[in-house]
Amino acid sequence: MARLDQVITNIVDIFLEYAEGEGNKNQLNKDELKKVLEQEIQSPELKSKINAGDIEEAMEMLDKNHDGEVNFREFCRCVCDLAKCYYHKKTGKGGKRNKSKEQEGCPED
User: Which spans does this entry mark as compositional bias, Basic and acidic residues (predicted)?
Assistant: First the structure.
């Protein structure tokens, strides 16, 4: 399987695997999100961007529609933000526009 194919299928498979726990099978509740963050992110530089120890804060950041759960779109936004953080770390690029965001954790484009 090509690398991008693998990345896409992994994102979907991880979401579905953890969402199958309790409650709505198409969303991650707080406990399921905590498991994803603790078990599927091992890189210290990425793990520091979303603190699984403070799940309330992570949930607030991800749950844009404020329904108490993270849907697939919100989960993808999280993965995309982590990918951007990693990109900026590898390239050393963040731009002046993102200076304050970069100090908080990661620049947004």
Answer: 100-109
